[in-house]
Amino acid sequence: MLSDNWEVLATKAQSIYQNSLEKSLKLVNFDKALGQKYNELPSAKGETTKDYGSPTKHPFQLYLKTVPQSVLDITEKEPVDLLTDLKNGKFTCVEVLKSYMTAAIIASKLTNCVQEYLPDEALEYAEYLDRNHETMKDLPLYGLPFSIKEMIPFIGRAVTHGSLCYLDRIVDYNADIVNILKKNGAYPFVRTTNPQSLMMLECVSYAHGRTVNSFNSELTSGGSSGGEGVLNGLYASPFGLGSDIGGSIRSPAAFNGIYGLRSTLGRLPTADYFSCNRGSESILSVTGPLSRSLETIDLVMKTIIDSKPWLIDPTLAPIEWKHTKQDKFRIGIMVSDNIVNPSPPVKRALNIVQEKLSELGNFELVPFEPFQHERTMPILGKLYFEDGGRDFKATLSSTGEPLLVQTSWAIDGAKDLEMHEQWYYNLEKQKYRKEYLQYWVDKYTDKDGHILDAVIAPVFPNVAPKHETSKYWGYTCQWNLLDYPVLVFPVTTVDENLDHPLAEYKPLNEIDEYFYKQYDDAKSFAKAPVNLSLIGLRNTDEKLIEIGKILRQEIGDTHFCFKKVK
Amino acid sequence: MLSDNWEVLATKAQSIYQNSLEKSLKLVNFDKALGQKYNELPSAKGETTKDYGSPTKHPFQLYLKTVPQSVLDITEKEPVDLLTDLKNGKFTCVEVLKSYMTAAIIASKLTNCVQEYLPDEALEYAEYLDRNHETMKDLPLYGLPFSIKEMIPFIGRAVTHGSLCYLDRIVDYNADIVNILKKNGAYPFVRTTNPQSLMMLECVSYAHGRTVNSFNSELTSGGSSGGEGVLNGLYASPFGLGSDIGGSIRSPAAFNGIYGLRSTLGRLPTADYFSCNRGSESILSVTGPLSRSLETIDLVMKTIIDSKPWLIDPTLAPIEWKHTKQDKFRIGIMVSDNIVNPSPPVKRALNIVQEKLSELGNFELVPFEPFQHERTMPILGKLYFEDGGRDFKATLSSTGEPLLVQTSWAIDGAKDLEMHEQWYYNLEKQKYRKEYLQYWVDKYTDKDGHILDAVIAPVFPNVAPKHETSKYWGYTCQWNLLDYPVLVFPVTTVDENLDHPLAEYKPLNEIDEYFYKQYDDAKSFAKAPVNLSLIGLRNTDEKLIEIGKILRQEIGDTHFCFKKVK
User: Fold this and answer.
1) ipTM strictly over 0.85?
2) What angle do CA A292, A485, A203 make, to 5 degrees?
3) CA distances to A237, A252, A254, A258, A487 from A292, in Å
4) What domains are there in chain A, each with its CATH number?
5) In this complex, do A386 and B281 lie within 8 Å of one another by their Cβ atoms?
6) What is the pTM of this model?
7) Which of A62, A108, A150, B246 has a CA 20 to 30 Å removed from the CA of B333?
8) Taking CB atoms and an 8 Å cutoff, what residues of chain B touch A427?
9) CA–CA separation, B255 vs B221, rounded Å?
């Protein structure tokens, strides 16, 4: 852990980014016109990582105007189809890498979503694949670059998970999941931003500044896998890897209109990721892919699990990735958790989904009442930082790095627990898990024994909120406490003509009132995507993908890029 | 938690036993001759639970002389065959219950292995099954009584797990696993003894006294599932349920010459069992069956897992119980953990197994070097009692119950950890698990990619040791730390002509010297069974059963009862 002054380190972090950017610019070799366009783009990055830049209001519009069509022809292709082109030799791996690198460079200038580019390593691997096209082209992910959240170990790079004191923690290995993906033909090309402490549904740190939403820079990217959400939201990565202990895959996926899977603990290797509080086992973080392409998420999951990762990571269960055909689905609809009610666009999205699914003959929809969700935060509030935040605070105090507003909010109420207090909260957790399972099975199974397949619910009380206001995790961390897998999926975007704030409203409580007031005007949230959660019992990840595919078919792809390319 | 004087409670515990015994005697209704025989049996139970009785030296001999042949005809039948008889109506369920109850009453007088009989509940269920023979006879375990370790919740009974202060903790539910077995036609008929704190490889408590070995009462029964080991060792139960956090299924199974399966965490419901340190999650206890019948263990596992227990217990993984045919096996032989070398009979057992398996064409045997087993106890020594034993000590101090020698030894070195210390030892555990898996896979996989299927190793440095001397857990707790499933299986019994102590020996260390000296003479261990461990990677429980079946076929059944009945 470094003890240099944090401002010196912030400058150093900036120069690490800058160096990797310059190398990447050489790799992609912009022509003069594109170079000029690029230089003139408003930057979401400040002078140093202590400052914020002045991003354009709607990054994706400028992104699409800037990225050359020849690049878009590759990057906006459905990644599963791109794989076919790569295998067939229609594109070389280096061509695809250069396209995605171009896209990422432009995306990051507009949104500050990349922590560090990996041009050398990526190029080396792409060239290696091209040289061995004949023998390697049958690898399931042949030639696909992907993005990784900064906290995921990558050989030869510092892993800070948003704390400057770790800027010298150069790891000498790749995360298991990175190695597995490389063996299967995919390789990381950028490392994306994550916030201080990783414990916020936004993405701000002194290691990178602030990542802004890809649709509306006045709104948050979500977090902690904020960089992933934005980069994938702009289609500037075929897929990425995030991690989630309270909503960190789901909020950025939702706020940027893409898919994100919080997989069940024990399906994917996560144990070697970095974060604070290592060794704390009461609540565990889990990894999962983010992508605008559900097929790609499916393929990535299948590829990793087919490799038998349980022979590498002892925390995993040997459960194969297996789709089973199902004729009929029974789905619960949870409109509110009865703590914070969703905003008008979120309610509208729930209506859209209900309407579409109820038209199908094989979907039975039932109202799902949340089971005592008010028990969740009192347990998690203690177990997230069971040392009272000492470990995390030490990462700041060593360099004098200031505590950010959102981090401060997250650790508020944490207490350095003595052993029996930890056990007490663990027992509360165990009890609640058991009761919830019983509730789900006993109350919602139909008379033919068909168990509820999934529940559709909000991801957050609102669409992407304004910066520094995402102060409620209930809709996401609920499922971390229970360790239920969740797929977030896009439904629509905010509609200024339809999503008017409620004129009259009697708030349920203080936090509900806070959120009610936040949704002041649909204009504030212009163009923001509206996603929902699809939640299943433990280890039903495959089923969520299946249902997700049906939902997409019914709702249609609403993402701007998809529409445009179509 | 009661605060009455412990001696008063000890008397109360004795009278609970006595009452249940008297009811059971009425149920089985001994004729005059048997009644007299029974009254004259030397008792392993003292006047109160503070005293020890004066058991006969070799309980099984007297057991066989006492139990009427008509009872043995039922109790010594392979339980899987008995099931066929029950289904066919050759025996009624009540007949079978009465036979097993007779056997258990006699077994317990000789060894003090029953904590409490369940005559009323068992009879009620047996009669219910008989009345519904036609509709229920196809249940996989139709009519089979079974025994449960005292710490397993059984409705309407006090669960003490060996601490008198809990004598008023009457539970109002059955453990999930008990409910599942009942739904499948089996039902508990006795609760078996477990020791103070559950943390010893012996079985002594002020709630029952001392349980002695079924083969040689000068030796320990093993523990903590001591009562199960002995009752099943005498064939006085078709199967039983124990629990294991450091060897508690395996040592009693091994010391009494039967099979015992320490299943992988997440296969069987255990979370609702009672013990000290509830809420401590760093090292978890796991349940599993003990039986002289490997087919019964297989059937019980299959029945429970086929019931989808993961829809009841949220800690379980949805992994089906599935045997896969395998033509070739690759087995490691670990002769010593390099900390305490095994005694002569244990080494001989290893030789027998090696010899038999090497004669088979489809078994490849490789020497297996233990991977740094010296790292295990320093981690477990902290994580077993991460509160420094406070929780456990409180159970004694409330009533003044004295700390037993073996418990005292077990908690020696425990420390009330602060949160970062716990995290430190959790990380040490995680690191070791990962390195061990890598070692197993990388070092022992053959050139065709065939991973080592299992390792055969001692269960303990010796056969059942003398009372109060089982002061080394390394051969069992090693696999708890790694969460590897282990099947212990019988190989032979101590042979006075073959198993001479080593005349010359240079001990590896102090504890090795202690064990060397303990094995003073084969006569001290006369008739003691010699079992071994079969260890697999996580979730290979089925494979262990498969290999166990081949081993049995090759070694032959060595258990006295089996031989006699044959």
Assistant:
1) yes
2) 55
3) 9, 12, 11, 5, 12
4) 8-311 (3.90.1300.10), 329-565 (3.90.1300.10)
5) no
6) 0.97
7) B246
8) 278-279
9) 6
